[in-house]
Amino acid sequence: QVQLVESGGGLVQAGGSLRLSCAASKRPFGRYAMGWFRQAPGQEREFVIGVNWNGVREYAEAVKGRFTISRDSAQNTVYLQMNSLKVEDTAVYYCVTGPTLRQYDYWGQGTQVTVSS
């Protein structure tokens, strides 16, 4: 079993920045992807961003140009840099990992990000 521990959430004003971190308790697969989903109040959970083992990245349209993802494979850690935050980015952010960018088998507990106007 792989545990994912997120950190870095909090309250920020619109236009500000936050950086989320996620550490996996162990290497989940030989080659694996890591990424982030989010769920806003009353909304369905949605994909935000992901990075594959070979550096290929995918972004939700809503965050392109504002969010970036990076990973430290040696530490089984992934980072989400969120810039130019908007009120609509308010959500619980979940770290995920899986064998591909289309399959995520492990989820973190989530960290709250609140963007105020």
Features:
117 residues; mainly beta; 11 strands; 0% helix
Description:
- With 117 residues, the protein is mainly β.
- The chain is built from no helices and eleven strands.
- The chain has strands at 4-7, 10-13, 18-24, 33-39, 46-51, 57-59, 67-72, 77-82, 91-98, 106-107, 111-116.
- The strands form two sheets. Strands 2, 4, 5, 6, 9, 10 and 11 form a seven-stranded mixed β-sheet that branches. Strands 1-3-8-7 form a four-stranded antiparallel β-sheet, with no helix packed on it.
- A hairpin with a 7-residue loop joins strand 9 and strand 10 (106-107).
- The radius of gyration is 13 Å and the shape is globular.
- The relative contact order is 0.33.
Cα-atom radius of gyration: 13 Å
The profile of the biggest β sheet is: 7 strands, mixed
Tally of DSSP helical segments: 0
Give a count of the beta strands, DSSP E runs of length 2 or more.
11
Mean pLDDT: 95
Poorly predicted regions are: none
Shape: globular
Order of helices and strands: EEEEEEEEEEE
**Helix-strand makeup class:** mainly beta
Percent helix among the residues?
Answer: under 10%
How far the N terminus sits from the C terminus, by CA atoms, comes to 40 Å
Strand fraction band?
Answer: over 45%
